[in-house]
Every structure is written in C-alpha cells, then in structure tokens.
Amino acid sequence: MFRKTIICLSLGVSCFIQLFAQSTRDFKKELEGIKSIQDTVVLHQKLSALATGSEEDLTLLAQYGLEKGWSRSQWDEFAAKRMPKEQFAFNKAQEKFFAEKDLNKKLAILSSIQKQFPNQKYGYNYALLAGDYARAGNFNQAMAYLQKTKDQDRLMAWSQLALVNDPKISKQVTLQVNQTLLQKNLPAEERLTLLNMKRYLLEQKQDYKNAAVIAKKILDLNQNPTQNEIDHYHILLSKSGNYQAAFPALEKMINKEIEDEEIKTEYKKAYQFMYPNRDVKAHLDSIQNVRVEQYEAKYKNYNGENLIKEKAPEFELLDANSKTVSMKDFKDKIMVIDFWATWCMPCKAALPGMQLLVDKYKNDPEVKFLFIHTKEITGESFNKVRDQSLSYFKAHDFTLPLYVDLKDKDTKTNKVAEQFKVTGIPHKVLIDRNGFIRLNSVGFNGSTPDLVAEMSAVIEKLKNQTN
Q1: Domains of the chain: residue spans and CATH
Q2: Cα-Cα-Cα-Cα dihedral sign, residues 454, 455, 461, 464
Q3: What is the model's pTM?
Q4: Distance CA 462, CA 467 (A)
Q5: With 429 labelled, which of 117, 138, 301, 414 sits at a CA distance of 20 to 30 A?
Q6: The Thioredoxin domain covers which part of the protein (predicted)?
C-alpha cells in the first residue's frame, strides 16, 4: 500500500480514492478538519506531520493536495520526504513510460530505465505491456508479458486483457481464462480475478444466465464480498429472468436511493413481474415525491453556511457550435458549472438531477448553466468529443448546454479544468453575479432529490445576495 500511495504523490494521480475505501478512518471528517485550519504555521506543521506519518496519513495528504490543486513541485516535495533518492528518481523516470502511447517507444523507454535501475521491479510495467500488446492484436506477446508478472501485477495484467475491445482477442482471452481456471494450485486472488473476467466477458455477450452462475461462484469463494458484488449478482439474476429471486435485493437497492439506471430498469421489470396489476411508474413516483419533500425540508432554512468567496478565473472554451465563449459572456449572471465526461459514471448518474435544475431555471435569465466536458480519455478532436456528448444527451432526453474543454496538445492538460483546480469529476462550481466562486462541490452522493434541493438552495441564496 505504501508503494501505491507514494506513486500517487509523485505522479499526482488520483489512485488514492481506492485507498480511502479500504480504511476505517473517517477521512472525510479529518479532511474537513485540515481545510478548516486558518493559521498557516499550524497548517504547515500538520501537513509536514502527515508527510512523515503512516501510509493512511499519506493518503489523506494526497486527497488534500488534489483538492487544493497542488502544483507538480509541491507533489514532488512531499514525495521526496518519503522516498529514498533512488526510488524517487526511478519513479520520475517511470513517468515517461506511463505517458508514452507508442508501443515501440515505450519498449525503448523501459529498456533505458532497466539499465539505469537494474535492481528495481518491473512487474507493473509488464502488466501494462500485456494490455498494450493485446490492444495491438498480438495475443501471444501479451501472454508472454503476463507470464513475467506475479501477485498483484499478475492480476493487473489479466485485468488489462479483459478490457480489450477486439472480438478476436476477447475470444482468445476467454479460452486462456478457462484453461487457467482448470489449474488446481491457482492462487485464490488470481482465481477470483479470472472468474470476474469470465463473468464480465459473458456479460459482454449478454449471456446473463451463465454470468449469474459465475457471479454466485465469486460470492461463495470471496470471504468478504463487497455490497456492489452482491448487488451486481442480483442484477444479473434479474437480467436472466429470475425476477422472484432478484426482487428483494433490488427493492433494498431502490430504498437506499441509488441513482443507477440499470438498477431502476431491473427493478421495474421485477416489480411488474411480482405485481402485474400495479402501476410501477406511480409506485416509483411516490417514493421520489417523499424524498423530494424530505430534502426540501432539509434545505428550507439554508443560510449559506458552506459558501466560500474566491475570484473566478478568466477562461475561454468552445460551446457546442464551436464558438469561443469566455467569462465576459456571463457578466452579471449566476453561473452553474458542471465539469463532467461521458466516461465518468458518477457524472452521468448526477445528470438527471442537473436536468431537473435546468428545467427549473429555464425561464430565469439570471441563471446560466455550463456543462463542460473535460478530461476526455480518448484525446480526440473537438468534433468527436462534442458528438459523443450530444449523442449521450439525446439518448437520455437531456437538454443541457454543452461546452468542451479539450486537452492542450502541448501541455496535455485541460486548461479550464486546471484554472478551476478540478482534480476529480463530477465537479460543480457556482459563481455569483459578481464573478466570485461561492461553491465547489466534488463527486455525487447518489441522491437526485438531495442534489436538486441543495443546488436550488444555493442558487436562491445567490439570487438574493446584495453584494
């Protein structure tokens, strides 16, 4: 865990999220405590203590740094405190390998690093190369690099193969997975990984019945299955037509207020099977109405206690018509900005609530919404990013004003996201009519009524402010 955390610091990436979930510490509460420290001397002492503390201390520091938009030099400063000089230099050298997309250049970089650091371990590199070769259509070479890995790196290599979007490679991967699962002395973690791959590949072929069988095997073998794994098993039961067995679990998911279209779809089918004479839409609407009332009551007396006041950056970006817009175009307006991406599941889960907000204020000329697609992982052209976004909006009946924050070809960064210190998405920003950021909200807690009620309360507060 220490190695993974320190890589997060040195590379400035967000893998700390996984580490947060593995701890019993209340990181959210601790993080808020650090952010509330006003004395700069005390704050520096606290951060220095975290930098030299436990692995979980370092994880907390990573979260704080990402939220504050630390510069690369700040990441390196704290990483250097925890790493031997050779390890730090090795991690810096690895950055070129991780960033390179051309396979031949990647191999040359790795060869150079291995000569410079002959005593380091390279299993993680081999795991990534297994995926690279598979994506290039060379399955034999992919397996050759997988065989160079072991333990956690082996699991990473298998996972890389599962995500290759090539029918021919997927068929070869499936055969190899089935063959490997026949081994009697296969490590337990690797067996679970392969079973998950098999389940995933069956789902890709829409063979939900057999996928559910494999999912049950996974639950039986796993001593501590996650709630997501349990829930997914019941979703597969529903998809395979076993509504009676799936319904109790699906009902619990709905009652937990999970905003997941897949769960909603399966719950509707299971509910109609269990209660053929009832109106499922009316049933879901009644549940939603109760929640709306609860959250509206929660924010009824909102007084702006969580508002901040920071000057918003001057920015330029493209709208859906490829027209350049800037901060000046929204002078004297209340701006609701949502940084999102089509690959981001929490972003997409929050969009139904944001659509409700757009509908609520569609006739209010003072409130302007900007849905800024950023941090695209395909790195394509404006037209491709725009068309993918608009296609998603159309498929879900969203009428959201789209803007595009493309990655700069030279700096490899999304400029507008950088200006707003966006480290994770979804990231929502509310700006008052005087050009000050009053709210930064990162992530989505899964509740559409909560999102709508909170954002509405903040918007109304900003509308009523006099300065």
Answers
A1: 2-148 (no CATH), 210-278 (no CATH), 310-464 (3.40.30.10)
A2: negative
A3: 0.65
A4: 9
A5: 301
A6: 306-464
